[in-house]
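Lecture notes, unit on protein representations.

Consider one protein chain, 130 amino acids long.
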Amino acid sequence: MVAVANVFDEADFVTRMLDDRTLARRIALSFLHDTPNRIDVLEGHVARGDAELAGREAHGIKGAAANVSAEELRRVAEAMEEAGRRGDLDALAQDLPVLRAQMCAVTQAMRPLVSGGQPAADARALHDRA
């Protein structure tokens, strides 16, 4: 099992947001909204056999994950970016479920930050998108 800090380092993320938890929450919500769509786009590139575009999309996911202190997600996206550069569609296809699993783990780990006093059902809705 991956340590929670490697999934999402909330303290690091909030510090990078200048200790502004409201800003951190807004950025995290945006990340949780956008990243599953980006993963879907990446998967489409892999399905169409376009390793180069898949690698470019993985690069964007890697940057987004780094911005929110989601280290394991960043690491998997980086491996996929490199696979895309090599044209390795097999590696890309193999890493897709790992990427999705990490996104689900990040969503769960971010739940306390993004719920911000809202009902847990709202946070669960974010998880369902991952």
